[in-house]
Design goal:
The structure is a homodimer. Chain A is α/β, with parallel strands linked by helices. Chain A contains eleven helices and 15 strands. Chain B binds a DNA duplex through helix 1 and helix 3.
DNA sequence: ATGGATTTGTTTATTGGTTGAATTATTTGG
DNA sequence: CCAAATAATTCAACCAATAAACAAATCCAT
């Protein structure tokens, strides 16, 4: 039932502790010594030394010069993530561009390729072929840098089934698209853009381990992060916040129901309500209707999940100053527990690249979460 | 980040594998042999034998006569949970009764004490003193049976903070009540009744590992079970479904907002709408308004969490036949993914005792989840 | 400059726990 | 009554972490 259904052997102990040590180093802002890692992990220095040897041999960690220090004792050798080890390839197909990026273990974006162009008129196969070209170019450049690409992830604006097929991506006009073998065998996972953007914000630091990322685009999606892990739902399509009911007698929605959030706070609805033509012009408009609707939806999330932090991304990020008051008022009114524990609203830190960087970050994260799997891979 | 921040030593391996073996036995409908357990767990027979020895010595498992079999080979000794080992004490304080029960490891209710009486006029201290008497009597009877009570849990209809204080229980008139030391040192955990009832339904079997339990009483609460574990939210107050917004212009709610679910599907609202005085009379009434409101709220849950099963408890359980159509229609209309994956509505199996049994079950579950902790306890 | 104090990192024997193979136990079937 | 089959236990080997001793590299006081 509750406990996982897998036996644990000694090798799992090692796998767990490798991940533990690696993540302590990864989360340390400055290079950290073996001894400090041992103290932080609760393992002995001897054990940490042995684990670190493996991690260095596997190009996951590197030793750097000891930081000069004015205390007695042998100076500590610093450990940090290797910038020339495994890397993640992040891909994205969205309404008006295709993009790829390469991110190394330390989180730095090493390469970034963007191909603007409306994807709606082209069919899925053509769009994917174009993406494949872009991705190969990114791989070529990564290899030239001496990086080993550990995997790839693709962000799409739509519902993705557990097996990676895109069930529906309304704004791309996609319907049951299997991405297939894009890169000659290099596995490509596919995920929803809001989910990946949420992970990306998590990686950007300074966020609590549980939060909701709300992405405002043509549609509205949400990525739910619980305790540092993306919550995907039972079948993989959680976070469909865009179709929460705001008013049962509200305007009809393209989903067939009435009064969905999208009809109040979706990009098109906001433009229509403000009587302007571009997103940039919204900065001067009255957004109280959208804000109130967003507040109602956010209240539902908080009442159900008791999450204290909401990150607003996509077009909402720059508009947050104008939305905050209406959202806050509605949340205060509707969330029972708001009296004890405040709900924090934040603007997303990362711009439009969030989803793509989150995709690359997901690959990196999978290596950091299971270094033993990386060490045991078939060497080239 | 994602991986837990604790080191793993060999002893944790044993702790994990003890839990693994114990739960395989617990989940087996019939007594199961060591060999079959080994096959199911992936451990070797030698290891399972050693683990089982410990579990038997700790009165968690017992050997039963081998089931007669018509095949060659030494007959297998059956293993099952010990009915005379640790037991859980479940407590409940609700609007019109106090109750206690003792449940053994196998899930059987061994004792059940119920003291009817309106708790609203008495203050919290008096109610708790009465509960304490009831609990002591239950403990006495458990001891007379040779059971060792491993712990106690209390179900209350209200919001419970992480430290066990009841922040607010509107229908009891409680406000920041610390339960304190009820039973001379025996630890008592406190939890929301909907949460515990949800766990109770999970234990009653036949449910998928992720579902939502909706409890209709004076207020409406929800227990969210994700992957076999209760989801409590960041600060412990998840599942406040009763105050989801159904209609922003709806009737005012005692929470201060307008159009909350409780104003449509709460017990009092349903009675008022049907023009009857007792819950029993609702069976013949038109419940389409409540059903539609419930359907809207359930759609919100499913859209956010992608959960495929909803269990309706409390007063909703007997009324489900009359509610199903309205709920179903609204869910089909509002849940994007309903086309691919059906949402199943079920009536709760357990009656009014669900929360109290869930409380006892939570104690049992904590032993099953961490048998090593139980084995390492100070023996009497 | 030199020896003691201090901190880091490695070496080595020990311990806890699983594994795999061999062994013992208990049944059915010819 | 013996062979085949299945269940459970015993025992040596192995793997990974620990504790304690040791080596290395620095600061500081004399």
């Amino acid at each position: 039932m509750t406990a996982s259904r897998a036996p644990v052997r000694q090798s799992s102990v090692r796998a767990h502790n490798l991940a533990l040590v690696l993540q302590i180093v990864a989360n340390s802002p400055d290079p950290i010594s073996r001894a400090a890692t041992a103290a932080a992990s609760g393992l002995t220095r001897a054990t940490v030394s042995a684990l670190v040897d493996d991690l260095i041999a596997g190009t996951l960690l590197t030793e750097v010069e000891p930081a000069p220090r004015n205390r007695a004792g042998r100076p500590a050798a610093g450990l940090r993530l290797a910038p020339d080890g495994p890397a993640g390839l992040g891909l994205e197909i969205n309404v008006d561009y295709r993009a790829a990026c390469v991110v190394d273990l330390t989180g730095r974006v090493r390469h970034r390729l963007l191909e603007p162009g409306d994807q709606r008129p082209v069919d899925a196969a053509t769009a994917l072929a174009g993406l494949s070209r872009l991705a190969r170019e990114a791989l070529r450049r990564a290899e030239a840098d001496g990086l080993t690409v550990a995997g790839a992830a693709l962000a799409v604006p739509g519902l993705v089934a557990a097996d990676g097929t895109v069930r529906i991506a309304p704004n791309l006009g996609w319907h049951d698209v299997a991405v297939g073998d894009l890169l000659d065998g290099l596995p490509v996972t596919v995920d929803n853009e809001a989910n990946l953007a949420a992970l990306s914000e998590l990686g950007a630091g300074d966020l609590p381990p549980s939060f909701v990322y709300v992405s405002g685009e043509i549609g509205i999606g949400a990525g739910i992060v619980l305790d540092g892990t993306l919550f995907r739902g039972v079948r993989g399509w959680s976070g469909e916040i865009g179709h929460l009911a705001i008013d049962p007698a509200g305007p009809p929605c393209r989903c067939g129901a009435q009064g969905c959030l999208e009809q109040y706070a979706g990009q098109e609805a906001m433009l229509r309500a403000a009587g302007v033509a571009t997103v940039a012009e919204l900065a001067g408009a009255d957004l109280s209707v959208a804000g109130q609707a967003l507040g109602t939806a956010i209240s539902a999330v908080v009442n159900l999940l008791d999450i204290g932090t909401v990150v607003l991304g996509g077009i909402y990020a720059p508009l947050l100053p104008r939305l905050r008051e209406a959202i806050g008022a509605e949340v205060d009114r509707r969330v029972l527990t708001a009296d004890w524990s405040a709900i924090e609203l934040r603007a997303a830190r990362l711009g439009p690249d969030a989803a793509m960087r989150g995709a690359a970050g997901a690959v990196i994260r999978s290596v950091l979460d299971d270094p033993a799997g990386w060490l045991a891979r078939d060497r080239p």
